[in-house]
Amino acid sequence: MAASGEIPQAWVDKVKELLGGEIFTKEQPGKWEGKAGGHVPVVSKNDDGTVTVKVPHVMKKGEKDEDDHWIEYVFVQDAEGNIVAMNKFTPTDAAAAISFQPEAGKTLTPFGYCNLHGMWKGEQF
Question: Can you give the pTM of this predicted structure?
Answer without folding.
Answer: 0.90
